[in-house]
């Protein structure tokens, strides 16, 4: 998130009203609820994790052990088992 100067964006009368509440401080203005994006939507991490999880499940089905998967993906055994369970439910 980039900071923007309020005086460059807001009309003067709106800026004056805001200054009555917070003069010179930082103010976070949340997105409108219909514009909110879900976690990972901007960065693409959600898509990457989904791809990784499918790959883990595929390798597990090919006979790769949970222990070997933990070593390859640097995840705990419980995380690998959770991923396998979730992917199994999707199939």
TrEMBL record:
This is Mor transcription activator family protein. It holds the Pfam family Mor. Residues 14-88 form the Mor transcription activator domain. InterPro entries: c-mor_Regulatory_Protein (IPR052411), Homeodomain-like_sf (IPR009057), Mor_transcription_activator (IPR014875), YraL-like (IPR049739). The lineage of its organism: Bacteria, Bacillati, Bacillota, Clostridia, Eubacteriales.
């Amino acid at each position: 998130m980039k900071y923007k100067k309020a005086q460059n964006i807001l009309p003067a009368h709106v800026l004056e009203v805001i200054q009555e509440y917070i003069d010179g401080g930082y103010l976070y203005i949340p997105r409108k609820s219909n514009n909110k994006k879900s976690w990972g939507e901007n960065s693409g991490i959600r898509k990457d994790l989904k791809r990784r999880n499918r790959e883990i499940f595929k390798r597990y089905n090919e006979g790769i052990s949970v222990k070997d998967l933990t070593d390859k993906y640097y995840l705990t055994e419980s995380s690998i088992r959770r991923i396998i369970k979730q992917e199994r439910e999707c199939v």
